């Protein structure tokens, strides 16, 4: 298992460089939307390591075709130059009845299936590659339909899942979706995310995917229980942090992950 770190903001450049130099991570996941204006060569040489591409704001389910095609043209240049380990995106809603949402929202897995399937087909066509789709940290009961939705979507479109381990833990705690329901998705996935979560300010508390805390005990226990099922040749696990960049906490979490997935295996499968 190769370990990675998400790179979202220029200001974390020294942190990411240090993690690479100290061998704590093996690759970097770029939130590629933030770097679309850079020259492909500048992105390709930004870090002495492989990269993954994570797309945040394509809004490929609801965006207009011309806007998508324009973004895809730019992304294809970067994909051709950088040859990322994977290209990933989000199955989510960014607006409701014409109003822009402050936070991205979960789709209705039953009612929206056909629209999403068509849009995934189209987005992969425009990008010219397989797209991995990330599972959502569900809040509402509809989240219980997510595992079967992703299994069906991958079968129908050839897309994959970027399986976020702690998002599954959030969904489990918020709407009771058993972690085991994801096993077929995990078995078919090669690329993973993990992060800390936090409780909402308002009660009743929801578990929110905040990327600002150390990994929780239940997230680590989930990984430990299914360690061998996450571990595939070429597999990657990105540790996500978007706030509270406390070096000691980040190093400790990466060390825990490295203990679960020793480096020898990463080298063996590289
Ligand atoms: Fe994630």
From TrEMBL:
Transmembrane segments: none annotated. InterPro entries: MbnB/TglH/ChrH (IPR007801), Methbact_MbnB (IPR026431), Xyl_isomerase-like_sf (IPR036237). This is Methanobactin biosynthesis protein MbnB. The gene is mbnB.
